[in-house]
Amino acid sequence: MIHEVDEGLRRLLGESGLEASGVEVVLDAPTRDWAARRTGPTVCAFLYDIREDAARRGSGGGEVYDADGHVVARRVPPRWFELTYLVTAWASRPQDEHRLLSQVLATLMATEVLPERLLTGTLAELGLTVGLETAGAAADAPSAADVWSALGGELKASLGVRVRAPLAGVSRAAAPPVTEGLVVRSAVRREDGEAVAGRRLRYAETGDPGPEGFAGPRERPSAPARRRRRGDRQP
């Protein structure tokens, strides 16, 4: 799921016009060594925090159907996670970096949900909403200063982007659908103790007689006429 969120976010930033203008969109950690090797204008979306959204944890399960509408598997509910990215712009001048960061901010603020066309893999199969929150207050996430200190770089302007995405639950294959009726075999035991093959009965859903002893519903015999007793009155 994490790599699918990465791809969706990278595609979103690329479609904003960055790639068309020659700006590279990467997911690298913006360390001091990485910054020294950079050769062109770049927008970097670095994933630095992953946490489960326990408030959205569900129970029960769902069913997976094939093209014919048969249940082929049962899946536990998805678990929701919050992925936090540090988005930065890199160029030769601070003015250019701020221009790139402004373009990224406008794109992300206009997008509250990742479009379906950008989702791949399990995110596309689940059909659930993948939400985005940009530049919001995240009290439980590490601060930007702590992240830059851990990376060994200098603090610079950045955007915090939080993505809420589902992790598909485990699927377990279901038994194949019933395609045949119930078969009952009977045996008759003679007085000498030897078993003799009896009748082979089979219940079909349609109830129509068929091969191999298919038995339809038996009609109830009519009650025998009551014998007239002496003294009964004639009608």
| Low-pLDDT windows of residues | 209-218
Q: Give the overall average pLDDT.
A: 80
Number of domains: 2
> Biggest sheet: strands side by side, in what order?
1-2-5-7-6
Order of helices and strands: HEHEEEEHHEHEEEEE
C-alpha end-to-end distance: 87 Å
Shape: elongated
From the structure provided, what is the oligomeric state, counting identical versus distinct chains? single chain
Q: Which band does the percent of strand residues land in?
A: 25-35%
Q: Structural class of the secondary elements?
A: alpha+beta
Largest sheet: 5 strands, mixed
Region (Disordered): 199-235
Domain Pvc16 N-terminal: 4-179
Protein name: Pvc16 N-terminal domain-containing protein
Organism: Streptomyces poonensis
Secondary-structure blueprint of this entry?
Blueprint: H1 2-18, E1 24-26, H2 32-37, E2 42-52, E3 62-65, E4 71-75, E5 79-90, H3 94-109, H4 121-126, E6 131-134, H5 144-151, E7 159-167, E8 171-173, E9 182-189, E10 195-203, E11 214-215
Parallel strand pairs: 1-2, 10-11
Antiparallel strand pairs: 2-5, 3-4, 4-8, 5-7, 6-7, 9-10
Helix pairs in contact: 1-3
